[in-house]
């Protein structure tokens, strides 16, 4: 099948690359000339484990092409994916200017029947808006389908190629048959394609992200209570996660959720509720708790230094919003850097992948170490922001040699309490007893 993907960012590149792998002819379109030039030369523009070999193979075989020209890119495409940004607008609701702008352009150049697919995360009612925009100019028949994407950064290829489910919202039998054919190689592995109406499909995406954010937030609040009550949240997590009605995943407490999706999508669903005059109380709580949780360790760091961080050097391990990505959008590390700087501390950071992105955002306000141990050289304390695997099994003696004070503030519960005690560290983590 010939398909086009408009927007070649994270989701667009994964979508285009994976669909070329299942034998389709894919053209990815982006307005960013530098991005398209780089992709044409074979230089991948995102860090995503496992994507590069598939990208290389299909590009070389001519199944994966790139262009900045929308009309050329969608020529003869049976399916046109919109994988465009939907950032929060000024009031927190999803900004549809990219989607509707492209829909307007498509209407002007479309010269054959095609299924236009909203792959971006868009509020309920968007498929109708996209339809109206295209219809204003289109001289041919077309359908608009909602097909939200559920991939996670870092495991995006796996999530795309073996989806738990594929959700397709459409009221057109013609579009349904095309989507069924396109997804057949992926859903054949036993994972269902769930057809529904457009509005329910749009709502499903926000429901999934908000539910997961709620699960994490619940555990963060449980962790805070466990600390006060002398319980261990890790035990509680295991105790409830084994109940299949609750499930083991997304129960890990920490310093809040971040990334390009949960924060904006919980906020946008809240805005949708407001539009319909519905007071969705739990969403408000999720956002409030998460804001506080991100900087939860800061008061403990201050207390350790008797309230004064001026002149103290704090080392940060981990900057990305989660491991296996260089993405720092809404990363808790950025909020902690800000809080530490505001309190007068010096900050030295290390992350295996996200250093360049942080340099662009934070510049010279912090010092950049070339490895995890260099970050500790003469530092007064260590804070852990991201659970990269190399931080899980460090050389503790090397750490003790370099750190001025043997103290760790761990936002990701990386270490066993007995082991860290045996190593002689003072250790603060989330929802567990402090080791002194
Ligand atoms: N990143 C994720 O993990 C993820 C997962 C599921 C869903 N989503 C959703 O998918 C959508 C896209 O997210 P993303 O992370 O891929 O965004 P992104 O910012 O990485 O990529 C968007 C791309 O669109 C391009 N673009 C902007 N205007 C354009 C135009 N007029 N024509 C062509 N290209 C244009 C940009 O240059 C950019 O390359 C969002 O709605 C997001 O919520 C993201
Ligand atoms: O038990 C957990 C699991 C996750 N997190 C945090 O939650 C955030 C989001 O993690 P994750 O969901 O793995 O990352 P994303 O790549 O943002 O993926 C989410 O957002 C995407 C964009 O909408 C969706 O497609 C995915 O299904 C959804 O998981 C990160 O800050 C994690 O540190 C926790 O604190 N505890």
Automatic annotation (TrEMBL):
Q: Which biological process annotations from GO are given for this protein?
A: polysaccharide biosynthetic process; UDP-glucuronate biosynthetic process
Q: Which SUPFAM superfamilies match?
A: 6-phosphogluconate dehydrogenase C-terminal domain-like, NAD(P)-binding Rossmann-fold domains, UDP-glucose/GDP-mannose dehydrogenase C-terminal domain
What does the entry list as the binding residues for NAD(+)? 30, 35, 86, 121, 153, 264, 329
For this protein, the record's InterPro entries field holds:
6-PGluconate_DH-like_C_sf, NAD(P)-bd_dom_sf, UDP-Glc/GDP-Man, UDP-Glc/GDP-Man_DH_C, UDP-Glc/GDP-Man_DH_C_sf, UDP-Glc/GDP-Man_DH_dimer, UDP-Glc/GDP-Man_DH_N, UDPglc_DH_bac
Which residues are substrate-binding? 150-153, 205, 250-254, 258, 322
Q: In which pathway does it act?
A: Nucleotide-sugar biosynthesis; UDP-alpha-D-glucuronate biosynthesis; UDP-alpha-D-glucuronate from UDP-alpha-D-glucose: step 1/1
EC number annotated for this UniProt entry: 1.1.1.22
State the reactions this protein catalyses: UDP-alpha-D-glucose + 2 NAD(+) + H2O = UDP-alpha-D-glucuronate + 2 NADH + 3 H(+)
Q: Listed GO molecular functions?
A: NAD binding; UDP-glucose 6-dehydrogenase activity
Entry's Gene3D superfamilies? Cytochrome c1, transmembrane anchor, C-terminal, NAD(P)-binding Rossmann-like Domain
For the UDP-glucose/GDP-mannose dehydrogenase C-terminal domain, which residue ranges apply? 315-417
Keywords noted in UniProt: NAD, Oxidoreductase
Annotated active site residues, numbered on this chain, are 261 (nucleophile)
A Pfam family hit: UDPG_MGDP_dh
Q: Which family does it belong to?
A: Belongs to the UDP-glucose/GDP-mannose dehydrogenase family.
- Per its record, how is this protein called by name? UDP-glucose 6-dehydrogenase
């Amino acid at each position: 099948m010939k398909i086009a993907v408009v927007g070649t960012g994270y989701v667009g590149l994964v979508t285009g690359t994976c669909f070329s792998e299942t034998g389709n002819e894919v053209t990815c379109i982006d307005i960013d000339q530098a991005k398209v030039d780089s992709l044409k030369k074979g230089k991948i523009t995102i860090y995503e484990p496992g994507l590069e070999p598939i990208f290389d193979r299909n590009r070389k075989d001519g199944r994966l092409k790139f262009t900045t020209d929308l009309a050329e890119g969608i020529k003869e495409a049976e399916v046109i994916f919109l994988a465009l940004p939907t950032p929060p607008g000024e009031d927190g609701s999803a900004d549809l200017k990219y989607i509707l702008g492209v829909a307007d352009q498509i209407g002007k150049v479309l010269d054959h029947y095609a299924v236009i697919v909203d792959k971006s995360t868009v509020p309920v009612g968007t498929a109708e808006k996209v339809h109206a925009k295209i219809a204003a100019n289109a001289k041919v028949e077309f359908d608009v389908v909602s097909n939200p994407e559920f991939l996670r950064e870092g495991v995006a290829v796996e999530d795309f190629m073996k989806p738990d489910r594929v959700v397709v919202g459409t009221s057109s039998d013609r579009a349904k048959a095309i989507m069924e054919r396109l997804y057949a190689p992926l859903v054949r592995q036993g994972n269902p394609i769930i057809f529904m109406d457009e509005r329910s499909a749009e709502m499903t995406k926000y429901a999934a992200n908000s539910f997961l954010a709620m699960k994490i937030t619940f555990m963060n609040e449980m962790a805070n209570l466990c600390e006060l009550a002398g319980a261990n949240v890790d035990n509680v997590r295991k105790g409830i996660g084994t109940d299949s009605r609750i499930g083991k995943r997304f129960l890990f407490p920490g310093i809040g959720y971040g990334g390009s999706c949960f924060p904006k999508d919980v906020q946008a669903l809240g805005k949708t509720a407001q539009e319909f005059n519905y007071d969705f109380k739990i969403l408000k709580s999720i956002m409030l708790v998460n804001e506080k949780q991100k900087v939860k360790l800061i008061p403990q760091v201050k207390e350790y230094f008797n309230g004064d961080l001026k002149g103290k050097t704090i080392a940060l391990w981990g900057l990305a919003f989660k491991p296996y990505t260089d993405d720092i959008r809404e990363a808790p590390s950025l909020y902690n850097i800000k809080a530490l700087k505001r309190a007068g501390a010096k900050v030295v950071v290390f992350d295996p992948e996200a250093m360049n992105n942080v340099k662009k955002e934070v510049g010279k306000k912090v010092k950049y170490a070339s490895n995890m141990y260099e970050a500790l050289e003469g530092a007064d304390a260590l804070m852990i922001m991201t659970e990269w695997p190399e931080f899980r099994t460090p050389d503790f003696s090397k750490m003790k040699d370099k750190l001025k004070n043997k103290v760790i503030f761990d936002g990701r519960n990386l270490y066993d309490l007995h082991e860290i005690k045996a190593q002689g560290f003072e250790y603060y983590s989330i929802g567990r007893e402090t080791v002194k």
